[in-house]
Amino acid sequence: MRYFLVLMLLFLSAPTARAAQIRIEDAFSPREGASHLVENTIYDAKKSIVVAAYSFTSKPIARALAAAHDHGVDVRVVLDGNQYNHKMDAYLLEHGIPVRISKQYNLMHNKFMVIDGKTVELGSFNYTYSAEYDNAENVMVVHNAGGIAADYVRQWQKIWDGARG
Predict the structure, then answer these.
(1) C-alpha angle 65/82/136, rounded to 5°?
(2) Is the model more confident about 103 or about 6?
(3) Cα distance between residue 39 and residue 60, in whole Å
(4) 158 with 43: CB under 8 angstroms?
(5) Which of 109, 137, 135 is nearest to 53 (CA)?
(6) Helix (H, G, I), strand (E, B), or coil: what is residue 127?
(7) Could you read off the pLDDT of 15-25 as tens digits, one per residue?
(8) Domains of the chain: residue spans and CATH
(9) pTM here?
């Protein structure tokens, strides 16, 4: 009887445990799916995307962010003050995406996004053409990241608050 009760408890709690399990995806470059993974992660957003980017010149990733914004997702981007691209900044702003420039550090060398407060995209991958086609880079996406996502949002907020619009 005790064995049956333990099995029932496991069975009844299993759907809840499975729903909150961390799931990890990864990709690499050159030409091994890094940009594709980042874009797909953006397209999965329902509510919000915060971006911290050292270097950002990728038109496909910028288009994905603009499309998310056009579908009602709150998208905000903070870029490094030494590396930011004026054309990319203008493109994002033209699409209604708030952008701030960080000059509070020697380098704001972060490359991450937090999607819907629960998914974290991170790695060495800069959001650039060179990162996808010329460099050896990596991307990891952690779904259902819980406290990790909260940590990244706090870090992003600190950078955003110290940056200028």
Answers:
(1) 65
(2) 103
(3) 7
(4) no
(5) 109
(6) strand
(7) 444 457 999 99
(8) 22-162 (3.30.870.10)
(9) 0.87
